[in-house]
DNA sequence: TTTCCTGAATTTTTT
DNA sequence: ATTCAGGAAA
């Protein structure tokens, strides 16, 4: 049962508005998720709305999962039939059912950025475009933008008439789409575009979904782009029960096509819209909030908003400048260790936020050194690693024969002696017959000029056929294992026997785990479903609560999260705001976007905010000298506690042993007393025992002296050849048996 | 056909 | 600094 007493007046107002368009302007930390969940509960429990008729769209799968969980708790029953998901998954679900109306197969594949680039490369070759003048990335960017704005290749072509360069780009767009269709593939943007196309060309489909989704809610509305707006406004046209929640000050995805006008002009598009402002912040201290307000006040053209809080004043914002990035990272790791050691906080209470992923490296190094458990969000996506992409390509080939890209990726992996020359002949044959690449391979014997290469192709084709046949009575795990065994992929990696190949094998194991998890969790597990899930995960989705680690991530990833202690690192002009924004054609606008990003960062903090920067920093192998970020100057100075730069005495090359030991012990103790421990699963088994030789990322080789079983994790004592005896948590240390 | 080497480009942020 | 692509040699 929902209890409206727990909400403030504005929140109640938003919850109680049931019919007609509703815009909720929700400042940072004003409880918008709470309002959304209560509103859903209210619709179901009080207004008799069928949960089946509710669609809630969030930005990430993680947010969707959390919302479902929270709704589950307060809704009497039926919450499982509410459709809660991201824009992209929603569209995929619709397209899997109806995309055949647009001439695609319903088992289409989804191309990631790398796949897109490969396709574009082929397109450029075909059109004989000079890759110096027309860079693939640039072309893809332009096309992506066109799609964000729902501009079709033909419209683009019309627009481009008369401009030679634009016409070339338009041709590339046309050709690119053709290529995708031939492969029965969609890129990320297509998911939205094709769904809207579907709605426009098939009134019966649209009507079905309009009737189904009578109540639509959209979170993070400030970050929607034009197609996304088209999608939801088309769906909502019938019943007009559209509720959007957002904060124009947190719009940070312009580069991805987000159209801030969607939120600013909502009342123009829906003149009868009710507008509710949530201005009370429940998250941060007075000081943090004032700092955020001070910064964002420098932006023009915002919606009028005054964020306030009843929370206490809190600590001043700590600001500190260091000589270089090293010292900055060392300071942060030191502070975190200190706080945890004192028992003031746990690791999971901290987040380190930065502008670009590359900044994570220094922190990682220092954290490893200080034995601080951490998790880096983002960076190289797990699913874009070579070995994972290879296996995925096999799976895609088995699942969707039309995806020529996947086939071409793996036809010679592992080596089968099939090279470019052969591939070109097969491709030419496929093109002339208008069949897919794989179909051409099946007829390899008929292809003129192939000679004995055809004999090399046959076993591969045979293998895929075999897999397809046994697909029905194999689990996902068996299937992947079969691929690894029958192709000799795993064998090759084992024989290679380097650190790198070992890491790859580990990644593959991890991948199998994910497949198993999928199979256990999904309602109707199948190969296409798995591939789809893999294609649509965001980095942030893998972050779980109750994992006691410091989180490191970009400011973009941090949107929607909160932490008691936040470190905002690298506040330097040129890094944040980025050099790109300062040097842009229209710096004002770009810097305003960076400022919003800064606002997002500051408002993540609940109790304490520390801002750091470095005088000089290595960028692309060159040392750069940067000034303190302009954003720091925008924080009212009375809120700032500036610390002077502490000159560092030359560091001993080694952390004193007992310190790190005590740290580990201390942390261990706090964990043991944590009642949450019972929820946490300990690493099931260690693959090394006492006496084994192991290696550690930072400390190198060593011998296991002792393994103690703790409540939450194993504690392992290792004698390292170069660093002496250290004690560490097994799940964190990631020791590898040598 | 593969491997090894050199030169060039790359880094903003992501579903 | 590191990765990646293209070209030459094996």
What does this protein structure show overall?
This protein has 738 residues and is an alpha/beta fold. The protein has 31 helices and 23 strands. Strands 11, 12, 13, 14, 15, 16, 17 and 18 form an eight-stranded mixed β-sheet that branches. Helix 3 links the parallel strand 2 (54-58) and strand 3 (83-86). The model is unreliable at 646-683 (pLDDT under 50). It binds a DNA duplex (15 and 10 nucleotides) through residues 59-61, 86-89, 113, 188-189, 191, 252-253, 255-256, 355-358, 378, 381, 412, 415, 417-421, 535-539, 554-557, 575-576, 578-581, 593-594, 597, 618-622.
Task: Compute the average pLDDT.
Answer: 84
Rounded to an integer in angstroms, the radius of gyration calculated over CA atoms is 28 Å
Derived from helix and strand composition plus strand pairing, the structural class reads alpha/beta
| Tally of separate helices | 31
Described by the principal axes of the CA atoms, the overall outline is globular
Strand content: 15-25%
Count of distinct strands: 23
Span between termini: 56 Å
The biggest sheet amounts to: 8 strands, mixed
Low-confidence stretches: 646-683
Helix content: 40-55%
InterPro entries: ATP-dep_DNA_helicase_PcrA (IPR005751), DExx_box_DNA_helicase_dom_sf (IPR013986), DNA_helicase_UvrD-like_C (IPR014017), DNA_helicase_UvrD/REP (IPR000212), P-loop_NTPase (IPR027417), UvrD-like_ATP-bd (IPR014016)
Family: Belongs to the helicase family. UvrD subfamily.
Catalytic activity: Couples ATP hydrolysis with the unwinding of duplex DNA by translocating in the 3'-5' direction; ATP + H2O = ADP + phosphate + H(+)
Pfam families: PcrA_UvrD_tudor (PF21196), UvrD-helicase (PF00580), UvrD_C (PF13361)
């Amino acid at each position: 049962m929902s209890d409206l007493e727990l909400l403030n007046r504005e929140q109640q107002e938003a919850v109680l508005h049931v019919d007609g368009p509703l815009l909720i302007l929700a400042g940072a930390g004003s409880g918008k998720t709470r309002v959304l969940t209560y509103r859903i509960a209210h619709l179901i429990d009080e207004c008799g709305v069928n949960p089946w008729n509710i669609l809630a769209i969030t930005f990430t799968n993680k947010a969707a999962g959390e919302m479902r969980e929270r709704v589950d708790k307060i809704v009497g029953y039926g919450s499982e039939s509410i459709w809660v998901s991201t824009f992209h998954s929603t569209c995929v679900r619709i397209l899997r059912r109806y995309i055949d109306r647009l001439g695609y197969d319903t088992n289409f594949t989804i191309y990631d950025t790398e796949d897109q680039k490969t396709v574009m490369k082929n397109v450029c070759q075909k059109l004989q475009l000079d890759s110096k003048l027309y860079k693939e990335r640039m072309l893809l960017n332009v096309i992506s933008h066109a799609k964000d704005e729902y501009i079709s290749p033909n419209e683009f072509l019309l627009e481009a008439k008369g401009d030679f360069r634009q016409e070339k780009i338009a041709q590339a767009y046309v050709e690119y789409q053709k290529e995708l269709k031939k492969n029965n593939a969609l890129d990320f943007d297509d998911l939205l575009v094709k769904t809207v196309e579907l709605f426009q060309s098939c009134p019966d489909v649209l009507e079905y979904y309009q009737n189904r989704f009578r109540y639509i809610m959209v979170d993070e509305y400030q970050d929607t782009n034009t197609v996304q707006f088209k999608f939801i406004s088309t769906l909502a046209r019938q019943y007009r029960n559209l509720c959007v929640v957002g904060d124009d000050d947190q719009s940070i995805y312009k580069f991805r096509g987000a159209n801030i006008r969607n939120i600013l002009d909502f009342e123009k598009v829906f003149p009868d819209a009710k507008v509710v402002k949530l201005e009370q912040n429940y998250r941060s201290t007075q000081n943090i909030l004032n700092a955020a307000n001070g910064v964002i006040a420098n932006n023009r053209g915002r919606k009028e908003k005054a964020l306030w809080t009843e929370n206490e004043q809190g600590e001043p914002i700590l600001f500190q400048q260091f000589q270089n990035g090293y010292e900055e990272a060392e300071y942060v790791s030191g502070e975190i260790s200190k706080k945890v050691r004192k028992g003031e906080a746990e690791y999971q209470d901290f987040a380190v936020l930065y502008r670009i992923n590359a900044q994570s490296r220094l922190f990682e190094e220092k954290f490893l050194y200080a034995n601080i458990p951490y998790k880096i969000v983002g960076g190289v996506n797990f699913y874009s690693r070579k070995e994972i992409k290879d296996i995925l390509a096999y799976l895609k080939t088995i699942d969707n024969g039309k995806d020529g890209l996947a086939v071409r990726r793996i036809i010679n992996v592992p080596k089968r002696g099939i090279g470019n020359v052969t591939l070109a002949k097969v491709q030419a044959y496929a093109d002339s017959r208008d069949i897919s690449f794989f179909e051409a391979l099946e007829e390899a014997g008929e292809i003129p000029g192939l000679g004995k290469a055809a004999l090399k192709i046959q076993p591969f084709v045979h293998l895929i056929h075999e897999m397809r046949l046994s697909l029905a009575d194999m689990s996902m795990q068996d299937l992947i294992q079969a691929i690894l065994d029958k192709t000799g992929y795993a064998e090759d990696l084992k024989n290679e026997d380097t650190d790198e190949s070992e890491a790859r094998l580990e990644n593959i194991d991890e991948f199998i785990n994910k497949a198993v998890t999928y199979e256990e969790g999904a309602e109707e597990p199948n190969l296409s479903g798995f591939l789809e899930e893999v294609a649509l995960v965001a980095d942030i989705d893998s972050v779980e609560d109750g994992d006691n680690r410091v989180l490191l991530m970009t400011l973009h990833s941090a949107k929607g999260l909160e932490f008691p202690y936040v470190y905002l690192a690298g506040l330097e002009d040129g890094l944040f705001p980025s050099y790109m924004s300062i040097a842009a054609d229209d710096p004002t606008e770009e810097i305003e976007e960076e400022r919003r990003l800064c606002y997002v960062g500051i408002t993540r903090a609940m109790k304490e905010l520390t801002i750091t920067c470095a005088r000089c920093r290595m960028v692309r192998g060159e040392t750069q000298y940067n000034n303190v970020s302009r954003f720091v100057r925008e924080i009212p100075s009375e809120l700032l506690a500036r610390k002077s730069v502490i000159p560092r005495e030359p560091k001993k090359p080694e952390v004193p042993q007992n310190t790190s030991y005590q740290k580990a012990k201390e942390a261990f103790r706090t964990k043991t007393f944590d009642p949450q421990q019972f929820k946490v699963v300990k690493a099931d088994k260690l693959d090394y025992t006492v006496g084994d030789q192991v290696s550690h990322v930072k400390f190198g080789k060593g011998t296991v002296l002792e393994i103690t079983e703790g409540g939450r994790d194993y504690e392992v004592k290792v004698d390292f050849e170069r660093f002496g005896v250290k004690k560490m948590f097994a799940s964190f240390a990631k020791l590898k048996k040598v």
